[in-house]
Amino acid sequence: MILKIKENNVEVPSLTVPDIFLAQLGEQARKKSFALIEDLRRAGFYITHGLTKEGLKKQLEIANKLGAKYALLLGQKEVLDGTIIIRDMEGGPRKLWIL
After folding, report:
1. In 1-99, which residue ranges form alpha helices assigned H by DSSP?
2. What are 21-69's pLDDT values in tens digits?
3. Mean of the per-residue pLDDT values for the chain?
4. Is the pLDDT of residue 72 over 70?
5. What pLDDT does residue 52 have?
6. ∠ Cα 67 76 23 (to 5°)
7. What's the CA gap between 74 and 25, in Å, rounded?
8. How far apart are CA 10 and CA 18, in angstroms?
9. Within 13 Å, how many C-alpha atoms sit on residue 83's CB side?
10. pTM of the shown model
11. Which residue from 48, 44, 46 is spatially nearest to 64, judged by alpha carbons?
């Protein structure tokens, strides 16, 4: 496929940098993440996520590689508290009440 693309001089579009990367830890956070992702997409944000069992450090590395502007961090504690942590990928984390 790559050879055909090169042979036909097909211009490959550049990847869009996500506005938000949603990192989650734990089963409750994962369930909550699905609705949050849809809400943010409907609001016009380009969001990607780490809905895997990877640790937070690995998920933030992925967010950084993708060039996400912000990372939302949702864990068990945040689900119980009704909060989420917003991390400016160039700055530091802030806590926000979501429920």
Report:
1. 2-7, 27-42, 56-66, 76-81
2. 999 999 999 999 999 999 999 999 999 998 777 898 999 999 999 999 9
3. 86
4. yes
5. 74
6. 10
7. 6
8. 24
9. 9
10. 0.76
11. 48
